[in-house]
Structure formats: C-alpha cells, structure tokens
Amino acid sequence: MSSETGTGALTETPAATAVFTAVLTEGPLSRVSLARRLGLSSAAVTKAARPLIEMGYLRELAATERTGPGAGRPASPLAVQADREFFVGVKITADELIGVVCDLCTEVRASAHRPLSDPSPGAVLAEVALLVEELLGGPGGFRERTRRLGIAVSGDVDRDGGLVRYSPFLRWRNVPLRERAAEATGLAVTVENDVKALTTAEHWFGEGVGAESFALVTVGTGIGCGLVVNGRLVSGSHGVAGEIGHIGVDANGPDCHCGGRGCVEAIAGTHALVRRSRECTGRAGLTLDEAVALARGGDEDVRAVFARGGTAIGMGIAAVANLVGPARIVVSGEGLAAYDLLGEHIRAGFERQAFGAAVECPLSIRPLPFEQWARGAAAVSIQSLVAL
Amino acid sequence: MSSETGTGALTETPAATAVFTAVLTEGPLSRVSLARRLGLSSAAVTKAARPLIEMGYLRELAATERTGPGAGRPASPLAVQADREFFVGVKITADELIGVVCDLCTEVRASAHRPLSDPSPGAVLAEVALLVEELLGGPGGFRERTRRLGIAVSGDVDRDGGLVRYSPFLRWRNVPLRERAAEATGLAVTVENDVKALTTAEHWFGEGVGAESFALVTVGTGIGCGLVVNGRLVSGSHGVAGEIGHIGVDANGPDCHCGGRGCVEAIAGTHALVRRSRECTGRAGLTLDEAVALARGGDEDVRAVFARGGTAIGMGIAAVANLVGPARIVVSGEGLAAYDLLGEHIRAGFERQAFGAAVECPLSIRPLPFEQWARGAAAVSIQSLVAL
C-alpha cells in the first residue's frame, strides 16, 4: 500500500482495486453485495476495504442490514468520502484552457478558463500553472487536499508514458507532458487523450456506469470516439484507439493531415466543412457560422457539403457498430451546433452501412458543455488512485 | 451446480467460472497461482474447484509444492481431464460440411466431410445428423461421452438465441438452428458465427491465450474479423461484431448484398473479384483461378482488380487498428491463395490509413486449414460448459 501522502495508486491487490472501483462508481454498496458481484469472499472484501477506510477514502454508512449466521457482524454499506481528496482537470484546446476542481465523485467544485495565444508547449505549460494556481488558491480551500492533475489533449497520447505523441491541432509531437506539467505545477499528473478522458468520466461517473459496451462519438474540429468494450475503456495496445475520425470511408476522397485518404475527419471535420464550403461558394474568407447560415438558407451546394460530411460520420459510426457492437452510441461535440444539417445524413449513413442487427444500436445525441471535457480529465486523475 | 448428466453450464459462481476457465486455457495451474492471478483466496479456489474435480473435469496432478504456514496442505496443480467429455464441431459452408470431434483441450480426435448439394435448412440439418452419426458412431467410441455440438455458420448469428438471423451465402434468414439441430442430433447445441468461433478457439486454446486484445481477419468469399478486446471476445450488444467486411471504405463504391455501399467485401470478397475480373476482361465465364492466373501473367486490368481489393482490405484492417488497437492482427483465410496479388496492397492500404502509432500493430499471415473452422465450432461448444 502506498503511503497516504504519496501519489501512487492506493490499491495494490486485484481485490482492493475491484472493491474501490465498485464503490467509487456504483456505491454505496454493502460488503455482501460487493462480495457477490465481485466473486470474492466477505473476508476478502473486508480485508481489501480496511486500508481504504483507514486512509479516509471509504467510509461506512450506518448499518442497514445484518447477514447470515454471523449476526454479530454488521454489513454497513461502504461509500466514498467525496471530499477526502480533490483533483484538478484541465482540457487543452488550440485557443483556450478549461480547468475544473472535482471531488472524488467528480462533482465540479470550481472552474476557470484561460485564453491561449501561443500553443507551444512552453507557453501552454506556463498557462496551466497559472490556471492551477487560480483554481487551488481560490476561496474553496482545495490546495491542501489536492495532489493530482489530469490533462486532456486531443490526438495520439501515450497515457502510460505521459507523452503527447502527436496532437495535430496543437502541432505538438512527442511532448513529455506529464513530466513537464508535474514540474510546472508540483502535482502528480496523468495525461490522456481528451475523448478517452471524457469516456472515462461517462464510464465511471456518468451514463456508462455498468454498461458492458458503449461508444461516445465527438463531432467538431476533430472527430473522435471513446469506446468501452467488455466493461472497460479501450486503450489500444499501441496507444491508439477510438480514432473514428481516421477511418477511411472514401477510397478516392480528400487527403487527410494524418497521411490517410478519405478519412471521416477530412470530409466532416470543421476545417473540411469550411474548406469545401469556401470552394463551392468561391468565398475565400467564409467562416463556419457563415457556411451554416448559407446552408440553412437553402444553398444547395453548401447543404451538399454538410450532407457529405454527415454521411461520412454515419459511415464511421456504422464501422464502430459493425466491429464492436456497442449497446448504444452517444454522439456529441461542438460540431453538433450544425445538427440540423448533419443529423439526418449521420443517421442515413449509419443505417445504410450498419450490418444486420447492428442497425438496432440506438444513436443518441446530447449536448456537451466544454467544462465536461475538463471534468473528464479530472476523472482520469481520480482513476490514477486505482491500480488498473 | 447442474447435474453431471445435464447440458447446462458446469459452473455457477464467478469464482468457479474463473477457475475453470483459467485451468482450461492456461493450466495446469496450482491453487496458489490461481488465487494470485484471479484475486481470490486459496479457500475460494479450493471451494470452486472441488465440484469440478468430483465431476471429473479437473484433476490434481502430483503435488509439486507446499505453501505457506499450512504446510500440511499440498498445492497440487490442477489440470483438465481432456477425455472427460468430447465435443462435436461442425462448420457449414455453402457446399460442404466439415466436422470434427475434439476433446476438452480442443485436440481433434476425428474428422469427416460431407458435400452439400442443397443449402436449405432442412437438407443441411439432415446432413448434419448424418455427419454427427458418422463421427460418433465410428471407431473412436466417442458417443458415450459426447453431449454437445457446436455449429459455426457465416453471417449474423444470435448465439444466445441460437438463431441464424442472416447468412447470405446460405441464403438463410431467421433459422432457429440451435433448436432444429438439437432435434436432429439429440445433442445440446451452441450456434456461433464462424469467425467468432475461430477466434474463440485461438483465444482459449491457440495463439491468443493470455492476449488482452487481438484480431483475426479472414479473407475469402466473406471477409470477417474476430476481435478480442480487454481479454474477451467481442460479441456485440446487438449480436453483430467483427463485421470488417461491411465497413464502407468507398462512399461511391459498388453496392453490397447487405444493403451497404462500398463495403470491403463488395470490393475484395471472392465474388466481387471474379465479377470485376469478368467485367474488365469481357469473359463472362471467368473463374477465380483463371483471374488469378491472368493477373499473375501480367494482365494489368485484372491486377488492378486485386490491387483495389487488397487496398480495401487494408483500409478495413486499419479501421480495426484505429478503433480498438489490437496487440496484433492475424490475416488468414482461403482468399489468401492469392496473397501474392493482394498482400502488398493490404499492407499499403493498412499503412496509409493506420493513424499514428496504430501502424506499429504487426500484421501476420498464416494458413488456416478448413478443419480449423470446425475445431472453432467445437471450442464454442466447450465454452458452453462455463457460465460466461
């Protein structure tokens, strides 16, 4: 067991990890129901929980039941002590940092934003340090019980190595973000791909709790996908997973910044939609908002750009359904501001390309405030308490 | 615990399932190492193993170590009793049945083939009954200890419901194969998609043992993919998974029998390769072998057909790598007879479309005798011993 003031994982055995995770995500739970669902003996549950109670991460609620022949042993449900520790989560976008402080149950206790004018790693890290200072030095009094920081970045992130291998929108390659952010902030840092972080938040603390499989597709500048399969987030053996934006859906389609061709993102990402709208209108300075307005006003050419984009997204979602068969798929992201232009084509592309019963997979759409991305980063930091 | 002569699962608790599965796939294993790897107490392992030993499915090897303070308790490794029960596996193709008898360790003890002239369910079931009779009535004396039959079919199979929802090559829709095959043979039947069955055999008894993630891609008349993610076969919440053949890789490509467009299979499946070779040569009766011969002889148009097919397969494999990031991908199947024509394009399509570090995922190619498909069906039947 790591020392109470260290920043390693709190759990050292599979049983302790299973117990802590279950209480964290689905608690309060009695020792009896923990034992049943985890296939452990009651003694094993008690042994696993004891140090977590001693360290103050779990607490016993009032006894509500007594079990079996050992009527002298109360079966008090175990719950998380939400304010035992706080966690900073930061989402880095190309032009802004969004930060939150969350408690152990990912409830957001404070939030702050900082604009970014320079996306170079050094400049971003200086701003991250200022953002953390603003969040922890504020009136909430979080500093004393905050030791961990989660950072979410789009692109190819090696979580275990703490490395941003490639983030196209920041133009970063091989940035050792974990180490540099730890130096800049004094906190223990976990780095994760932003979509995976958001999916972790949904899986541990949101709609995905208890789901054996689900997918979260984010539509915007990038088009990403977080996947939970067989009850766990898919991380990818080589550090890449959920890259729905780089599935090739058009063998003769446009080249993508990734080196691929006809990628979903090269057809349906914000930059692609804007570029093609400029081409077909001849208006070189056209913005996304203007393109959306033209399409809504009935410009058939611009409408076709969004239609093609929606179809590409739907084909990518069908690939997810055909390959891994999630129980359901949530589609979200800032790109859904144009949902009226994309939605029917997303659905049609999905329905055309979903194989057999895969078409029964429900697609649901819900808004996603940007702060939720930062909460996802905090969730990843909370996860670092547990040896996965 | 089910009765010894019943055909339900042998294991009723998560612990029993975990112990039996671990010994079946990775045994012999001592109780100590079982406890360690499964996060169970030694007492829980002993309790879980006892009925399996009593029923003769597990046996204790000679004690090789004694552990801990309780030096009076031997820690004999547990092993599977391979000939405790035998299992029939049958693969149904459009023109042939392939059958095997396997022991509990999926060693093939007998095999037989029967040609199929009529792919209707009734005719196929009559032939399945004859095949089973031939296998079990033979000199091996298997009948007495054989109670289970696994059947592997291509297409959309609902394993839990025992239903073949759609098998394009057999032209079956909604055939309750489990029930009808049980009536025809008197055995307890498990029905599974053929590629999933093969992947199960690899995962439980082959190269995939212990792998957290891998993919098996089969190239032939159909193009399929079995996926193991987070240590378990992906079954798909709606019964569909691994349908790499129906990922759309060409938005303007040919229509597919599934209703999709530009599916990998509609470009690279055997039928598609033959059809397009006929189109570009003007030879209406051209066979696959003749098309391969023309391409090998340097016919540029036919070579281009195979090149386009290989590229489509590579793009599909890249989609698998980008989405789930397997540790490695095995490519196999009867279509690889034309590997010299497809291979470089499979690889090039994969490398172009794999995102970032996903390109590091090794692709390996190995032959796959048709009998292995039937062994996969038997493996699925063995799996039905275990409550998954």
TrEMBL record, chains A, B:
Recorded superkingdom: Bacteria
Pfam families reported in the protein's UniProt record: HTH_24, ROK
Family: Belongs to the ROK (NagC/XylR) family.
Protein name (record): ROK family protein
Species for this entry: Sphaerisporangium dianthi
Lineage summary: Bacteria, Bacillati, Actinomycetota, Actinomycetes, Streptosporangiales
